[in-house]
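Entry:
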Amino acid sequence: MMQSLIELSWLIPIYGFLGVLLSLPWSMGLVQRTGPRPAVYINIFMTVLAFLHGTFVFMGIWNVGGVELEIPWLQVADLSLSFDLDLSVLNLGVMELSTGLSLLAQIYGLGYMEKDWALARFFSLLGFFEGAVNGVLLSSSFFLAYFLLETLTLSTYLIVGFWYAQPLVVKAARDAFLTKRVGDILLLMGVLGLASWAGDLHYNEMYEWVKEANLTPLTATLLGLALIAGPTGKCAQFPLHLWLDEAMEGPSPASILRNSVVMTCGAYVLIKLQPIVILSPVALAVLISIGTVTAIGASLVAIAQVDLKRSMSYSTSAYIGMVFIAVGAQWPGVAIGLLFTHAVAKALLFMSIGAVINNSNCQDITELGGIWSRMPATTIAYVLGGAGMVGVLPLGGFWALQLGIDFLRREHPVLAAVFLVVNALTVLNLVRVFRLVFLGDITPKTRRSPEANWLMATPMMILSVFVVLLPFVMMRMALLPPLRYWHPWVFIALVVSGLLGFAIGATLKLNRSLSRSTDRNMRMLQDLLSNDFYTEELYRVTVVFLVRQGSRVVSWFDRYVVDGAVNLVGMASLMGGEGLKYSVSGQSQGYIFTIVAGVTVLGFLMTWAMW
């Protein structure tokens, strides 16, 4: 029985796509009498099947070890394509995490969007998204992973643009798609390069090739930069980070998956590519630089945001920035620990703030307040989610951050300090949001905010329990080292950084109107952070300006040079024809004179050219 389930593991990614096909009659509006609920139940059922199937396979692999499956797909001449899966404990563990979060987000979404007229289409898109993510996480071939990453980009575009009647949503979907395409195109160059040099795009084969690879430093650097470009776009890292906060215009259930599952998927691909990226020290340095800039910058920008979801989305970029640092410093175990703890905690945070937004129809923190007395369960979920993400003992975030700081302090003390700074700034931001949204006086927007309905509250409670139990899961999966390897000063530094952030966030003078400071320097700092260091303006005066000017030059050349040459030939043919028609006189001596003159001119030109 177990062997059959393992051999049928290729169905795990297919379940999501199958749910999309089965729900097409409802999502396309072909069946309306039953309402959209059948499509919802079909996709939830398929997610349950994927989760249960993955659970049984995980238990089987735990006992017998990893298994690689190769399912033939296309065989034409010398071209052989197959659907290859790597069923290891780690791959299945990450897949189970993403599928479980997807299942909880779908149940949550049913309660959040129960009155939406396009509910069937939304759940079909979630099934499409789930199938792509599971395929990326389980694939043992980089070619298959790239193909499914492109599918994931398409699903992100469709989900972000779900409410396509709103102009801001359309802009957000377009920017998310185009920004990711920049990284995907560079990643495609890396795929083609690896296919040429390594000869095989299976991860294990590429790892063997790396041991004997003989690339020039320039080639290795270009390959490494191309490979990290794709995850940089997927994980919203600088300079391809602007799309994530704009994507918060989409539905909150999609924001839950985007800030937990999508980020985990993109970063996990980077972790798989890390043994190849190490061929170039320059690429590793760039990886650390991207992670450091994003971690510090996004943490600062999050503090200045007044939009509830955007404030949390910037903290997502910051935490994934620490994952990039861990990968660049060649500590993949630290990166995996951060991914696990962040994904669960951030999903719970977005569920709690989604419940607030759903009941108050507002996500501006300046118009919220006093939520704790109206929504106690949601308040508990927010507190546990925030505590699980930062360094609060004994939850999972503390152990993941402690492990990273302990490993980095020996060779990269500056990067260890970055972890401490990000932890302090994140705690500050979480306390700031908690004071403004959950504490204080009740506002008109929150006066009639009841507790979330049971479909939304149930996933929050389940995830709250899992956040508490996550350290035991990490210990069981050997993601934490033995106690004797933990340094007491690291414990103290992490606790102090959290207490410092808490103290500043608790005592910081907060004005509910958040009016701008009268001090010119402070006002400039507020504007700098709230506008994301003017990154969009920087793009406008650099990249966008250069592309626009280049387009104008190309347009001028096409209009006046290419079209001009073609029009000249056409005009010459027309005038020549018009002129020659008058030479048709019927007299042979005129024809002979024309031939002799033409041959003479042609001979003269040939003689001059040879001379």
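Residues 232 and 240 are 7 Å apart (CA to CA).
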